[in-house]
Design brief:
- The chain is of the alpha/beta class.
- It contains 23 helices and 15 strands.
């Protein structure tokens, strides 16, 4: 990508980073002096990302958006992949120790995560504030245990570490499993990350979720004690839903940025279906729309909530940012399948993943491909081969009343021939019985 295109894609302006985060509701806690440091000079700041999967999920996006706003404000972001700390497991806000992962998996996950981050951050230009990706495994892998406890461990007391909420929570609530020394050492390792980046890259600010405050302040304390330097910490609130439910979780699990894990259609639908209260909050956090644009959308929403302009714009902005304009348009089109008079055309255009996402959970029937290739009367296919209807008589009766559709087109004759030209993505037939009952016949 040329430098002009990069500059156009990643706009840098003179906005005040802290003021920007404040009106967006993205500051939970901030060390004194942080804003003054940011106003004084281009500041390097880092945020840690858990590398235990080969994709980010939307729970990571708050931190990623903080890095994006930081870079847009003219400062330099560092995304730290926690390869070393990922091998240990952070005890913060967790009740049990997590599963550890090996180095080849960490390296694979790191590359996948960088590709996703590149949609939000400028890594490639020669701008002084271009983003940097680092992995703490690179400076920890050869650091011997004896050297580490001699050089670093002596500067932070056990009393100081025990006073952290993340430690007290585990020790107070988990008498059965306790807390391993491995986990206990986590805050010291994270503190050393900050020290290392401070010394090698001039990094003076660490950002993260509110659950990281204890680990982050350990880093600022280590820098103060070992270098006499000033370093700062800033946290964003943990995102919640208005009804108290957990943000980013669906019945099928996390909402991922990787389209193989969560299809763009399902990703789009997640944001489209948030409540009005959540849409008003999320559009500030998960887009870079201006305050004026958001206030205008909120006024539209208040005037006619049924039009849901907040949800539609939120879903549009974030789907394009994470996926693409094309994926967004395909998701919108797929959303219209159930209601559009061009549904048959749409069904023949959408890809298999989107088709399965739209009709997730509907009953399915498998039939031999040879049956479809030979051509088979609908009444035979949807009773004998696939029990969509309990009897041929019932299907004929419903067909006469206009209540049977194949690929969203009504059939007038129960004996109409179904053949391979009607297969969607070369293997599916969508059957509709009445207004709301859908079935997928899968040719194999």
């Amino acid at each position: 990508m040329c430098k002009f295109a990069l500059a156009k894609r990643f706009k840098i302006n003179s906005m005040n980073f802290i003021e920007e985060l404040k009106w967006r509701g993205m500051i939970n806690n901030m060390m004194p002096g942080t804003e003054e440091q940011l106003n004084k000079e281009m500041t390097t700041a880092y945020l840690g990302i858990d590398p235990t999967a080969d994709s980010l999920h939307i729970g990571h996006l708050v931190g990623v958006m903080m890095l994006k706003h930081l870079q847009r404000s003219g400062h330099r972001p560092i995304a730290l992949v926690g390869g070393a700390t990922g091998m240990i497991g952070d005890p913060s806000m967790k009740s049990q120790e997590r599963v550890l992962i090996d180095e080849p998996t960490l390296r694979h996950n790191q590359e996948c995560i960088k590709r996703q981050l590149a949609k939000f951050l400028d890594f490639d230009s020669d701008a002084p504030n271009h983003a940097i990706l680092v992995n703490n495994y690179d400076w920890m892998k050869d650091y011997g245990f004896l050297n580490f406890i001699r050089d670093i461990g002596k500067h932070i007391t056990v009393n100081y570490m025990m006073a952290k909420d993340s430690v007290k929570k585990r020790l107070g609530s988990d008498t059965q499993h306790g807390m391993s020394f491995t986990e206990f050492s986590y805050q010291l390792l994270q503190g050393y990350d900050f020290l290392h980046l401070y010394e090698t890259m001039g990094c003076k600010l660490q950002m993260g979720g509110s659950d990281q405050w204890g680990n982050m302040t350990t880093g600022t304390e280590l820098i103060r004690r070992m270098n006499g330097g000033e370093a700062y910490a800033l946290t964003c609130p943990l995102i919640t839903k208005a009804d108290g439910g957990k943000f980013g979780k669906t019945e099928s699990g996390n909402v991922w940025l990787d389209p193989k894990r969560t299809s763009p259609y399902k990703f789009y639908q997640f944001w489209l279906n948030v409540s009005d209260a959540d849409a008003s909050k999320y559009i500030k956090i998960f887009t870079d729309l201006s305050k004026e644009e958001i206030e205008s959308l909120e006024a539209e929403q208040e005037k006619d909530p049924g039009l849901r302009p907040l949800q539609k714009r939120l879903a549009r902005e974030i789907t394009i940012m994470v996926h693409s304009q094309q994926d967004y348009e395909a998701a919108v089109e797929a959303s219209q399948i159930l209601f559009s008079n061009k549904a048959n055309d749409i069904l023949h255009r959408i890809d298999e993943d989107t088709l399965l996402s739209v009709f997730e959970g509907v009953p399915t029937f498998e039939v031999p491909m040879s049956v479809i290739e030979a051509g088979v009367p609908a009444v035979e296919l949807f009773t004998t081969h696939a029990a969509v209807f309990p009897s041929k008589g019932e299907m004929r009766k419903l067909t006469q009343g206009g209540g049977v559709s194949v690929n969203k087109e009504k059939i007038a004759d129960a004996n109409a021939i179904i053949d391979k030209t009607m297969l969607l993505n070369g293997k599916y037939i969508l059957v509709q019985r009445g207004k709301k009952n859908y079935y997928l016949v899968i040719a194999k």
